[in-house]
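Many introductory courses stop at the sequence. We go one step further.
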Amino acid sequence: MDFTTSHWPPRDGGRQPFQLLLQTSMLDYAIERYHARHGVTLHPVLGDVLGSTLYAVSVGTSEVRPESGLTREALLSFICANSELFACPGACLGLWQNAFGHVELDVTVVLKSRKRALRIANAQNQRAIFNLRTGEQITVRASARSSEIQ
């Protein structure tokens, strides 16, 4: 499930069965897990990877909705609009509660390597990565020397 920055942005090869995320049972599971824990990182094959020894990096554009707007239809629309990103190796559906109590929907890539996650986050101009095991948000310093994130 791990990949390097050479796998990003998406290319034609290495597709994964992201269509599994479109199943009603997966959509319902994502909504259920979000409401239970205010967050879920859902891989189309592995299921919920929160608690795993992985790092999550948001890629692409996120969407913010009020919690009342977290519906099957909203998730379907988001997944279909971002199907090219979801087809990349390691791509997951990320749902999490922001500081204002709204739901953030995003395409999240999970990686085993903290260094690779930091490199990709830096290349994607992300502010942080997320440690799925500890729940720690790790700040990405744009001014970090390349030796600190390689």
